[in-house]
Structure formats: structure tokens, C-alpha cells
Amino acid sequence: MKRLLVACSLPALIAVTPAVEASQWLAIRGVVSSCLQTRNKASCTRALLVAESLQQKAAESNNYRCQSQLLGVQADVIMVQLKAGRGEKALASLADADQNCKGL
Predict the structure, then answer these.
(1) Residue 49, Cβ neighbours under 10 Å: how many?
(2) Nearest alpha carbon to residue 70 among 87, 58, 85, 84
(3) Within a 10 A sphere around the Cβ of 47, how many other Cβ atoms?
(4) 79, 90 contact by CB (below 8 A)
(5) With contact defined as beta carbons under 8 Å apart, do 104 and 22 qualify?
(6) Residue 16 DSSP symbol
(7) How far apart are the first and last CA of the chain?
(8) By C-alpha distance, which of 56, 66, 53 is closest to 17?
(9) pLDDT tens by residue, 55-101
(10) pTM value > 0.90
(11) In this predicted model, what pLDDT tens digit does every residue of 9-60 receive, in sequence order?
(12) Going by fewer Cβ within 10 Å, which terminus of the chain is more open, N or C?
């Protein structure tokens, strides 16, 4: 039941998250890596919100490859939150997004 509450409150949190600047790509890498490696709740929440902002920016820029990979990163973060992370595969997904989201 607690997990459902987190999922239901996500849209409200996203609405108050500021737009992500291109220079913040380095920051998301650090936050997502921290989430995937430490499973820290605060890091994972922040990673999910920042990844959402970036994937929306990718969609607006018609960078669908980047957008798709960021959706995958978000899925990896959610799996960590559900205690079912993908380990090294999740880090590989982040590296792929890093390659295709440069200049976002």
C-alpha cells in the first residue's frame, strides 16, 4: 500500500520540479548512479524527478532515442525503489542514455 502512495504522489512532485538545464546532465548521472548503487530513497526520488524533466525536454527536442533511454533509466530507478533493481544492467542503461543525450 505504501508503494501505491508514492506512485500516486509522483505527478504532484513532478509539477514542482524545476526545468532541467543542459548543464545538469552531469548532475543526473551522479544522482542516478547514487540511487542505483546505494538504493537511498532520497537519491532515487530526486533521480526519478530529474530524469522525468530531462525526458520531457528530450521529447520537446524530438530526440526520441534519448527520451526512450531516459524512460528506461526511470524504470530502473523505480525497480530500485521496489527493491527489484537490475544491478549492472541498470548502470549500462545509464551509460547508453549518457551517449544519446549529450547536448540536451
Answers:
(1) 21
(2) 58
(3) 27
(4) yes
(5) yes
(6) T
(7) 36
(8) 53
(9) 999 999 999 999 999 999 999 999 999 998 877 788 888 888 888 88
(10) no
(11) 444 443 434 444 555 677 788 899 999 889 999 999 999 999 999 999 999 9
(12) N
Q: What 3-state class would DSSP assign to 40?
A: coil
Distance, CA of 54 to CA of 67 (rounded, Å): 8
| Residue closest to 60 by CA, chosen among 3, 14, 19 | 19
Unique residue bearing C-alpha cell 532520497: 42
What is the C-alpha separation between 53 and 17, in angstroms, rounded?
Answer: 8
> Residue ranges of the domains in the chain?
48-104
Spatial separation of the C-alpha atoms in residues 23 and 25, rounded to whole Å = 5
For the chain, what percent of residues have pLDDT higher than 90?
Answer: 43
